[in-house]
Amino acid sequence: MNKAIIGKKVGMTQIFNADGKVIPCTVIEAGPCVVTQLKTEEKDGYNAVQFGFEDVKEARLNKPQKGHLKKAGDSLKKYLKEFRFEDCTMFQLGDVVKADMFVEGDFVDVTGTSKGKGYAGVIKRFNASRLKESHGTGPVHRHAGSMGACSDPSKIMKGKMMPGHMGAEQVTVQNLDVVKVDAELNLIAVCGAVPGPKGGIVVLKNTVKNNKLVKGEAGVSKNPQKASARK
């Protein structure tokens, strides 16, 4: 990992590119984040950097939290997140990280908490099919149906799709394209949808996907007997 930041989801909008095409994107208020802790391999067993995001009143923190955050300066932060960068030596305690860490054209993985849907049945939760609508269904047309258990193993197996709490889970959307960066307002626009509601906390990291650059002459043969080589 060489790029990461904590942000807040502002909402969705659309941007027109240079070709006049509409790009649906999500606007994220990325930073400013403060480096609140530096972890080293000698002291902690691994190298990492802790970022703090969003100011909070001093009265809302306990003494250990205030003592930990005041080592990095006077700004007290509400959300803390740890990142393992390839080179942690480029950060110092108290440094401010802004949205200009990313540039247009970067690919990022965005992690957030999805919206909570409450208690839901199998049709809404897992897209299960309902029972027949003809004859004999009774008042159970949206129930889960048979659980598949018999005398052996005489139990419902783990992983069975059943009703329960839906949403409010950590979700990561991978390989989103950064289409615009506003360093003055600390805003990053990424192409696509981001999990969570407006105002939800999200984490941006450079993607783990391998995005290979397309070469300009790919697919063009040098063999004059092929059509792609003829002019």
TrEMBL record:
Pfam families (alphabetical): Ribosomal_L3
PROSITE patterns linked to this entry: RIBOSOMAL_L3 (PS00474)
Entry GO terms, CC: ribosome
Alphabetized SUPFAM superfamilies for the sequence: Translation proteins (SSF50447)
Keywords: Ribonucleoprotein, Ribosomal protein, RNA-binding, rRNA-binding
Keyword Ribosomal protein: yes
Function comment: One of the primary rRNA binding proteins, it binds directly near the 3'-end of the 23S rRNA, where it nucleates assembly of the 50S subunit.
Similarity comment: family membership: Belongs to the universal ribosomal protein uL3 family.
HAMAP family: Ribosomal_uL3_B
Protein name: Large ribosomal subunit protein uL3
Organism whose genome encodes this protein: Agathobaculum hominis
